[in-house]
Write a structure and sequence with these properties.
480 residues, alpha/beta, disordered N terminus, 15 helices, 9-stranded mixed β-sheet
Length: 480
């Protein structure tokens, strides 16, 4: 474990001392939201005034990463502080896949309940088993990708959460607020069955003509959106990005309503608010990949007693750090060594965090038929991806392979941005990128003679990470 410098410890003590000893905790988890679609992260087109205001009143993390770019595995890491290969959630938690965490795993809601917190969740859940991730109050069932779920109606979600926020109970609360936005949406066929097949129309991303209670739809023109460099700049992709933007703006209004309720109840100043996403945008080249578009994500935090509004935190943190950080703020971090992540509570108000210059990622499955294990180490400058089963063709998630964006790549010469489809589907055992010179991760340096020392060092880091986190795939190094 790294030791925090005295100045960081002093800042942590100051932030926590300025707030009640048992602050409330609100963890907002968006579904497939990248840094590409947030005003405070540099997009001048998207309208996200409430999230921008939260960043302006708190801290914005610029080097925050999920550890796997797939919904259930990522959420399991968020809620346990353990990498998915360690907690057992190898892929999506659906009945036909049967991925779920091991029965002995201790999760954030359970640990907080044991520390005297009231725990409640609303919206998307998508982890299991229920006893491991037990919340005392379930405000909605959170069916994943259900067109009728309340997870698509974030203002309604906020209004339902009032019962938790306004409860006449001396105990602090932990609210897990998990939206389905801006995940791709299931269109509904005439027979009532959901489908991702919308070609040639764009996926609706949950947007509907009837709208949602309390939400003012913000509609974007395809010609105005910003096309990320890893996507094809064509009509189909732009139309989908416009729908995605609308879903993001809907979510933003739900966050605004939630903060409004916290303020009205006198709870805003005594509540730690954390906004993250499970993985990058639901477009090919981001979600389910461990390129930066899939794993480098928004992280906005407003801590009780904060002194430096609008702070920017550059330390590298990952979702494995979220559970120990929230437990630390709550005064309930009893066994720091029990987690793969480390608390970054000392940096919530912008304070310096030393020894945070690398993160690790681990992906094995999306759906059970989409096996493609990858292990990743990312430093400030370099990223090494180990494609453990590189002989396989890279599998695409159903919502991505059905997307008009994917179908339309023939219009751009068979390319996703600067990456060819052949390069995307057929990957070598190692991918090594110099992120300073090649932020789009196109020029693979793994076989470059001048980079063999860097590659060897990063491989050793990966091996140590896999051994420390009890990764079953660590055995591949010895028997191959």
């Amino acid at each position: 474990m790294y030791k925090l410098p005295l100045i960081a410890l002093a800042l942590c003590a100051h932030v926590l001392a300025a707030a009640p000893t048992r602050p409330n905790l609100v963890l907002i988890v968006a579904d497939d939201h990248g840094t590409d679609a947030l005003g405070c992260y540099g997009n001048p087109v998207i309208k996200t005034p409430h999230l921008d205001a939260l960043a302006a009143d708190g801290s914005r993390f610029t080097s925050a990463f999920c550890t796997t770019a797939s919904c259930s595995p990522s959420r399991s890491v968020i809620l346990t502080g353990l990498h998915n290969h360690r907690n057992g959630m190898y892929g999506l938690q659906h009945d036909d896949h049967h991925f779920q965490s091991f029965d002995h795993i201790k999760s954030l809601p359970g640990l907080l309940a044991a520390a005297g917190y009231r725990t409640a969740r609303i919206g998307k859940f998508h982890v299991g088993p229920e006893p491991v991730y037990a919340f005392q109050t379930v405000l909605s069932g959170g069916q994943a990708n259900d067109p009728a779920t309340i997870g698509r109606s974030p203002v309604e979600m906020a209004n339902q959460a009032r019962s938790v926020i306004e409860a006449k109970d001396a105990r602090p609360f932990f609210l897990y607020f998990a939206s389905d936005d801006p995940h791709r949406g299931n269109a509904v066929l005439p027979d009532g069955k959901p489908t991702f097949d919308t070609w040639p129309k764009p996926n609706p991303f949950g947007n509907r003509a009837a709208g949602y209670p309390g939400v003012k739809p913000i509609v974007y023109r395809p010609e105005d959106v910003r096309v990320p460099p890893f996507l094809p700049d064509n009509a189909a992709c732009r139309a989908e990005l416009a729908e995605y933007y609308q879903a993001v703006s809907r979510l933003d209004q739900g966050v605004g309503r939630l903060i409004e309720i916290l303020k009205a109840a006198g709870k805003y100043e005594t509540t730690l608010i954390v906004y993250v996403s499970d993985n990058g945008m639901a477009f090919p080249g981001a979600k389910t990949t461990l390129y930066d578009a899939g794993m480098k994500l928004p992280c906005i935090v407003r801590a009780p007693g904060r002194q430096h509004a609008g702070a920017v935190q550059n330390a590298m943190v990952s979702w494995a750090d979220l559970t120990p950080t929230m437990l630390d703020v709550a005064g309930a971090l009893r066994e720091p060594a029990a987690f793969d992540g480390r608390s970054f509570a000392a940096g919530l108000d912008g304070g310096e965090l030393r020894g945070r210059d690398e993160v690790y990622a681990s992906h094995t499955f999306h759906e059970i038929t989409m096996y493609y294990p990858m292990r990743v180490v990312r430093t400030r400058r370099y990223k090494l991806i180990h494609n453990v089963a590189h002989e396989l063709t890279f599998p695409s998630a159903l919502d991505l392979i059905k997307s008009p964006t994917w179908i339309s790549v023939g219009e751009t010469g068979g390319k996703l941005g600067r990456r060819s489809i052949a390069q995307f589907l057929h990957r070598p055992e190692y991918e090594l990128y110099d992120l300073e010179r090649d932020p789009d991760e196109i020029d693979n340096l793994a076989d470059h003679p001048a980079q063999q020392s860097v590659k060897a060092q990063l491989i050793e880091k990966l091996k140590a990470f896999q051994a420390a986190t009890k990764d079953p795939w660590v055995r591949k190094w010895s028997y191959e």
